[in-house]
Amino acid sequence: MQYPRNILQSVWDYLKKAEDDLLHRKRALDGEDPYSDASRFTSQRSDDVEATEQFGHEQSQAMSKETEAALTRIRAAMKRVDDGTYGKCTKCGAMIDTDRLGVDPTAELCMSCAKKAK
Q1: Are 60 and 29 a contacting pair, CB within 8 Å?
Q2: Pick from 113, 78, 75: which is nearest to 93 by CA?
Q3: Domain-wise residue ranges, the chain
Q4: To the nearest whole number, what is the mean pLDDT of the chain?
Q5: pLDDT one-digit tens code per residue, 44-87
Q6: pTM for the full model?
Q7: What is the DSSP string of 3-19?
Q8: Interatomic CA distance for residues 83 and 103, integer angstroms
Q9: Is residue 110 within 8 Å of residue 89, measured between CB atoms?
Q10: Is pLDDT above 70 for 40?
């Protein structure tokens, strides 16, 4: 069994908007990274400023990595919508509960497989 494409169009639209939002967030994070400012190499800075920049860089990198992981999940869900496998567990092939998909539209495992994976 698979969901008809017309029913999944709203899911695909939601995922596309989420992808666009995450791409915007990623660009903003890249711009906020203190290490992206080349002028920081030409000025004298105290150790406190360098430590603050390093912390900001590490924080930006962690958030960027988290954003990339979310993008990967969203794009995988969009691919499943496109190829007709959305809503099926990628491990066992069983249908994923619609309540689960409602909470997390990127879910790729049924609850049984998700519990086993932990």
Answers
A1: yes
A2: 113
A3: 5-85, 87-118
A4: 85
A5: 666 565 666 666 677 787 888 999 999 999 999 999 999 999 99
A6: 0.77
A7: --HHHHHHHHHHHHHHH
A8: 22
A9: yes
A10: no
Q: Which of 79, 78, 96, 74 is nearest to 87 (CA)?
A: 96
- CA-to-CA distance for 31 and 13, rounded, in angstroms? 27
Instruction: Tell how far CA 9 is from the center of its chain.
Output: 20
Structure tokens at 85: 């496998």
Contact 34, 40 (CB under 8 A): yes
Rounded CA gap, 10 and 15, in Å? 9
Q: Extract the tokens encoding 87.
A: 């809503």
- Residue type at 30 in one-letter notation: D
Task: Record the tokens describing residue 63, joined without a space.
Answer: 């958030």
Radius of gyration of the chain (CA): 20
Altogether, the residues listed in the chain come to a count of: 118
Give the side-chain half-sphere CA count within 13 A for 23.
8
d(CA 118, CA 111): 11
